[in-house]
């Protein structure tokens, strides 16, 4: 079984909106998610989160805290996964698509109500986002 590991960053602004990215590989349907990606060799989950956030949004962030861990198996594809989610804060930069893989199509601040209506890459993440907005 292939083991995939990654990290995701959740950034919440003063209006209680979450920074989301619209992503898809060339043949895929475009779906929304928080900035996230694959752990590279020698990288910590925190370093992965900061790097992926920058690559996907143009923003430099710092980690505030780990807020969730999601692990499981997608048996039909022979994949096990482990993703660590971090609450992040913007340190610098401007929102700009600069994804080297060219999978990011749009970046936008979204309210929880808007997110609930969007096609999500990982629909189960709505519960993580709801919990963070309540805190």
Automatic annotation (TrEMBL):
Picking any one GO molecular function of the record gives: hydrolase activity
Q: What Gene3D superfamilies does the database record attribute to this sequence? A: Nucleoside Triphosphate Pyrophosphohydrolase
Cofactor(s) demanded: Mg(2+)
The protein's matches in PROSITE patterns, at most eight in alphabetical order, are given as: NUDIX, NUDIX_BOX
| Nudix hydrolase domain boundaries | 3-134
Keywords associated with the record: Hydrolase
Does the keyword field hold Membrane?
no
The UniProt similarity line reads: Belongs to the Nudix hydrolase family.
Name of the featured protein:
NUDIX hydrolase
Provide the organism lineage as a comma list. Answer: Bacteria, Bacillati, Bacillota, Bacilli, Bacillales
């Amino acid at each position: 079984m292939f083991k995939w590991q990654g990290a995701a960053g959740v950034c919440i602004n003063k209006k209680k909106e979450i920074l989301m990215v619209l992503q898809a590989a060339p043949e895929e349907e475009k779906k929304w998610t928080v900035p996230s990606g694959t752990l590279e060799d020698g990288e910590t989950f925190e370093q992965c989160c900061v790097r992926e956030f920058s690559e996907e949004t143009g923003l430099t962030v710092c980690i505030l805290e780990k807020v969730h861990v999601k692990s499981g198996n997608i048996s039909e594809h022979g994949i096990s996964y482990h993703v660590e989610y971090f609450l992040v804060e913007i340190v610098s930069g401007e929102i700009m698509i600069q994804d080297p893989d060219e999978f990011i199509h749009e970046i936008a601040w979204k309210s929880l109500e808007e997110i609930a209506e969007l096609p999500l890459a990982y629909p189960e993440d709505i519960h993580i986002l709801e919990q963070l907005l309540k805190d």
